[in-house]
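Design job #97: recover the sequence.
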């Protein structure tokens, strides 16, 4: 097995709770460097090479790939320079502050011929993987409608740089809405146009971004969707009781995903789907969908609402070894960014907005 040496740019919560643990589960992977401009932060991560400047990581010839886990406004410069240095890249979502910058990141990675990936972590949820299988197998028939929501309480980690458009691009839409938009497009197809409304509830003069946004969406194939994204929902603590739900309704059946139940789905399939008197029922995700093929992660180790996220790092490492980008790539990040930009424009203009091509 080919060893892979990785550097991490950014040493905050996402790097510590997702990227580092996931990479440490991978075979023959050496996390050799990490950086943060905050004195002492990188040194506290237990990684041999701790730096203040990301350029020092990119200059190391032994680094094969980097993980970009910084605030959003820093992503484009780091990703582009990493690609130019020949480093494979896994970048946190959303890719950038706007579609133009996201396109530049993807173009740079493609030009350099490096493996690239966007960190849409929830794509690796076992229930999402199984739901995608059901859709692709035609178990729901032709999709008709989608109902999607991501609801969270206000948490301290959502403040700081995430509170300003200059650093985050937008508020709750960029922060957690990017996950929801990507998953819906992964499961149900391309979003083609949107009509949105947004609201800022917090009386915080330091913040200029929305706390809540909702939009209607017309999707390819005539599918209709509704989205609601909020971080002002008491009782929905981040990482504890926050909930993302995606309900898919087709001509022959229905299925509903909840982030709080990563090993199960609510379904109405077959005879249940054709009989309006029968309620949806919970089904267990089959064993083969509990982790990615080849992953060494113990599915029974840790909180099942969390541990599946480490398969993201496994796929990135295996993609580096194969020398081939696999979804979700930076192009998937660009496609998501196009929807985010359209939703913001719609909320500001109160008009239906067509989603730009990636």
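Job complete. Output follows.
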């Amino acid at each position: 097995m080919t060893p892979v040496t990785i550097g991490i740019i950014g040493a905050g919560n996402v790097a510590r709770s997702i990227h580092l643990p996931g990479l440490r589960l991978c075979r023959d992977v050496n996390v050799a460097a990490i950086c943060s401009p905050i004195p002492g932060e990188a040194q506290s991560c237990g990684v041999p090479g701790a730096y203040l400047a990301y350029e020092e990581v990119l200059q190391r010839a032994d680094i094969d790939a980097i993980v970009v886990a910084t605030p959003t406004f820093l992503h484009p410069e780091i990703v582009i320079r990493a690609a130019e240095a020949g480093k494979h890249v896994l970048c946190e979502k959303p890719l950038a502050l706007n579609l133009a910058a996201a396109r530049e990141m993807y173009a740079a990675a493609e030009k350099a011929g490096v493996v690239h990936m966007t960190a849409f972590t929830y794509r690796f949820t076992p229930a999402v993987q199984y739901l995608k299988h059901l859709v692709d197998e035609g178990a729901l028939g032709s999709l008709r409608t989608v109902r999607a929501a991501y609801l969270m309480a206000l948490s301290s980690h959502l403040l700081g740089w995430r509170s300003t458009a200059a650093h985050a691009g937008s508020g709750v839409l960029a922060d957690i809405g990017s996950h929801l938009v990507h998953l819906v497009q992964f499961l149900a197809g391309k979003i083609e146009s949107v009509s949105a409304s947004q609201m800022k509830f917090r009386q915080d003069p330091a913040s200029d971004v929305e706390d809540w946004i909702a939009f209607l969406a017309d999707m390819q194939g005539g599918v209709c969707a509704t989205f609601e994204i909020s971080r002002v929902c008491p009782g929905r603590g981040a990482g504890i009781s926050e909930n993302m739900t995606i309900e898919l309704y087709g001509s022959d059946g229905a299925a509903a995903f909840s982030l709080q139940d990563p090993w199960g789905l609510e379904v109405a399939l077959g005879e249940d789907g054709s009989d309006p008197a029968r309620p949806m029922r919970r089904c267990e995700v089959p064993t083969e969908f509990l982790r990615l093929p080849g992953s060494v992660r113990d599915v029974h180790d840790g909180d099942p609402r969390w541990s599946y996220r480490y398969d993201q790092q496994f796929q990135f490492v295996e993609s580096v070894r194969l020398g081939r980008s696999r979804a979700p790539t930076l192009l998937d990040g660009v496609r998501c960014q196009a929807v985010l930009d359209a939703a913001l424009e719609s909320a500001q203009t109160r008009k239906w907005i067509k989603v730009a091509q990636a």
